[in-house]
Amino acid sequence: MSTAGLEGVVATHSGISSIIDGVLTYRGINIDDLAKFASFEEVLYLLWNDELPTKEELTQLKKDLAEQGLLPNEVISLMKTLPKNTHSMAMLRTVVSALEMYDPESFDMSFEANRRKALRIQAKIATVVAAIQRVKEGKEILAPKTEFSFSQNFLYMLNGEEPEELAIKSLDTALVLHADHELNASTFSARVTVGTLANIYAGVVSAIGTLSGPLHGGANEAVMKMLEEIGEVENVESYINEALVKKKKIMGFGHRVYKTGDPRAKFLKKMSKELTALKGKEKLYQISVKIDEIIQKEKGLLPNVDFYSASTYHSLGIARELFTPIFAVSRTSGWTAHILEQYANNRLFRPRAEYIGSQLRKYVPIEDR
Ligand SMILES: CC(=O)SCCNC(=O)CCNC(=O)[C@H](O)C(C)(C)COP(=O)(O)OP(=O)(O)OC[C@H]1O[C@@H](n2cnc3c(N)ncnc32)[C@H](O)[C@@H]1OP(=O)(O)O
Ligand SMILES: O=C([O-])CC(=O)C(=O)O
């Protein structure tokens, strides 16, 4: 008997992140502590090395990320030729795929070369996402500054001005919260891809494609669309009730693994409350809370990481179409950690399908059909 959606199936071993009794850890450290105290660079180091960095190691990583964040001129030219109405996730998938062709070590499959490629991908993906928005707006692409942190650089490259402390801290916490999540769909597809010993870039491109769907990372953009469609607090009840009657899924709710709540959601809810208040967008938060109350009451479902991230990112002035690409910027840390783990102890993924098609029958020549 097959298991629909592989629910509950243990498909691999991993020492990167765990979800046990509703508690999420990265390398054994509770996400609650990481969200409160760690920077994204510390989390990145932790995911890749199984240890938190020393001050020197952290300084070096920040420097490496800023230096490796430059894009090849050919890739910048390519980005300018892509149709501006292409979805940002499609652009991201295409550009990351193109980056492989300009990686000096693209053919080197040694562990050390793959580590260096992971760093280049992580550094460049932030520049690419910021550049996607700027190219769409007809603005010049900006390069990262060596004195800036990863989140600071992302906001700088996106908006062309030095970001405020609160914006940097909020984005950084969101990146920490999205960095890894055991064997989620996009991480699984990255591992399946490199399980054939395909290139690390192929693994990340597979993962970006998988993340884009609304049942996974694409939900944050879909949540924002819903908030905009609802528009006013007094419209929430009728909008949600109508959607439920039509058996539509409400984006940002439910989870395959968490049944008693997603531990990341409380941080995003708090950030959403604070940032919407600060930016005069309280209505968005009020609409979100009302949806949350109705869904809990009617369906017993709780918000996942994507629900309150929508109003959080919106309050940071980020365009809706960049929400899922930003998720990809963060999750690249987890994808690459999983890819390196897969290479280090690889076995091809090749499950079976239970056949439910036609019974054995004869080939009929075309003139007899
Ligand atoms: C980063 C992330 O990927 S987090 C997830 C982001 N995705 C979303 O927010 C999309 C909305 N949520 C969903 O579609 C689901 O909850 C998933 C895909 C996340 C998890 O789904 P699964 O574990 O496969 O549950 P499944 O989709 O089978 O749903 C089980 C039941 O709950 C219902 N349900 C689940 N989520 C929702 C929802 N968001 N809204 C309404 N009903 C829902 C289903 O309709 C189904 O009902 P039924 O048994 O009456 O048919
Ligand atoms: O684990 C999952 O299925 C989805 C999820 O929450 C994530 O990828 O962050």
From TrEMBL:
It catalyses: oxaloacetate + acetyl-CoA + H2O = citrate + CoA + H(+). GO terms for molecular function: citrate synthase activity. It holds the Pfam family Citrate_synt. Pathway: Carbohydrate metabolism; tricarboxylic acid cycle. Signal peptide: none annotated. NCBIfam families: cit_synth_II (TIGR01800). This is Citrate synthase.
